[in-house]
Amino acid sequence: MAKGIIYLMTTVVSGLIKIGKTGNEQFENRMRFLESNGYANITGLKREFAIEVDGYDEKEKLIHDIFSKSRIVGTELFALDIEVAKSLLSSLDGKQIYPKDKSKKEVFKESTEEIKLKTEVGFVPDGEYVLNRNIKGFGKVNGKAIVKDGVFTVLKGSFCGNTGKGYVPSIRRNAKIKDNILQEDIVCMNPSSAGWIVIGKSNNGWVEWKDLQGNLIEKYRDKEK
User: Fold this and answer.
1) Dist CA 95 CA 52 (whole Å)
2) Which 8-state DSSP code applies to residue 70?
3) Helix residue ranges, H only, 38-134
4) Predicted confidence pLDDT, tens digits, the chain (225 residues)
5) d(Cα 64, Cα 189) in Å, to the nearest integer?
6) What's the CA gap between 201 and 153, in Å, rounded?
7) Counting Cβ atoms within 10 Å, is residue 55 exposed (0-12), middle (13-18) or buried (19+)?
8) Which of 104, 182, 195, 225 is 20 to 30 Å from 26 at the Cα level?
């Protein structure tokens, strides 16, 4: 079976990704072309993951079939969480081509952690919430958040801890923090992702955030809206 590269790219449109293939010799040129010119009237493409595999034609077709319900007809674009696609590609047997600064095992682990973080569910009533915690080697962090219509937003001005080595989710990596102060409001999918922004470490947000009466928000988790 022919050996080639299956690649994954993000686009300027949040939640829209490209899954394609190319020959080994053409990879860099193909990436530069797509990043410069876009694809199917979509711009802002950026390489995210690439792996060299045997039978790349067949494997690309199989991946497209797996995600067929998310596919934009007539294109290699998919309305799909990038981490779901990345976790699948990084589980394939083959040689990782991109990124070069992480192993395939690390990419897979980070993607599954991102998926786990995003799929955490539970009800939090509308209101104001705080997170205060002493972090060893850093000191006290102070986070403020509001929930409105079920949307959990960490507020600008929250005092955030530093991140350590190892896995850091995208919501914290992309947060604008200067001198440990959050520079803008950030919408989060759940309390634990909000906790990552403030604490800078893995956490259970349900026992970190409190309402203004000092109650852990865990008390609301299984209640009906």
Assistant:
1) 5
2) G
3) 56-66, 82-89, 104-118
4) 799 999 999 999 999 999 999 999 999 999 999 999 999 999 999 999 999 999 999 999 999 999 999 999 999 999 999 999 999 999 999 999 999 999 999 999 999 999 998 888 888 999 999 999 999 999 999 999 999 988 899 999 999 999 988 899 999 999 999 999 999 999 998 999 999 999 999 999 999 999 999 999 999 887 654
5) 27
6) 18
7) middle
8) 104
